[in-house]
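Researcher: I'm preparing a figure for a lab meeting and need a structural model of a single chain. I don't have an experimental structure, so a prediction will have to do for now. The sequence is pasted below. Please return the structure as tokens so I can convert it later.
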Amino acid sequence: MMNNGSPMELSCEAPAKINLYLAIKGKRADGFHDLETRMVKITLGDRLHLARRDFGITVQCPESDLPTGEGNLVYRAAKSFFAAMGTGGGVHIVLEKKVPIAAGLGGGSSDAAAVLRGLNTLYALPFSAGQLADLARPLGADVPFFVHECVAAWATGIGDEIHVDDISLSCWIVLVNPGFPVSTKWVYENFTLTTGGNPYILGRDFVHGNDACAGPGNLPLYNDLEAVTIGKYPEVGRIKDELLADGAHGALMSGSGPTVFGLFENEAQAQKSVARFAKRFGRNVFLARPLSIQAKH
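Model: Understood. Here is the structure written out token by token.
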């Protein structure tokens, strides 16, 4: 059904991401950290259904304990969109979650970005790509990346300044989530505790090849935050070691964790690793691929 040339409802995918590289560059006066990170969208994702309404915002999250009001980022994204549009309007959102919550995979940020993009379609594209990025930024550091059309990017600032990356990955990605959430805020607050007198030496050391793991094609894999999360949750480190033992060409914790990914060139090895981890972690183990231009919605 259409309204003035725009659909009345639509469904969209909200892909997760992995961080191939994450270095903390310094702490800002506002308490946030400047960083440099390389992110890639992957085929694991949530699905959202948006239906246009005359007024009001309603959210449903079937088979999930997520809040459905202001406590849900998709609700806040819709509220921000309508406030900026300034002409009224509403939406009913159904969020089908598959990406683990507080897992370092950007699931909530991607959901928020999908709402902004979906509403822009439902309401006949009132905002440019740049304006959508401006709406995305206050919602969370990763939201601008997911609003952007790109499949991969380098992000700087607090992670909200996007520089498109033309990296081409053809590997299989095994993702293992140990089943507990990790607070991003806690990880960043505790980052300096793991690096001694110079809290930003890890990022600089990477340039000289220290503590780096190489993925397929000698792709550099590195995450400053990994040591913080492993320090409190040693299981994360064990998962990383097991992925490498299973044949991954590289393994790394994504974002602030606790999800760990392994990059496999061989599909059979990847499938075998998934089956082995699934015995321990059940539905928190996933097989994915990098999102291609063709697969992107």
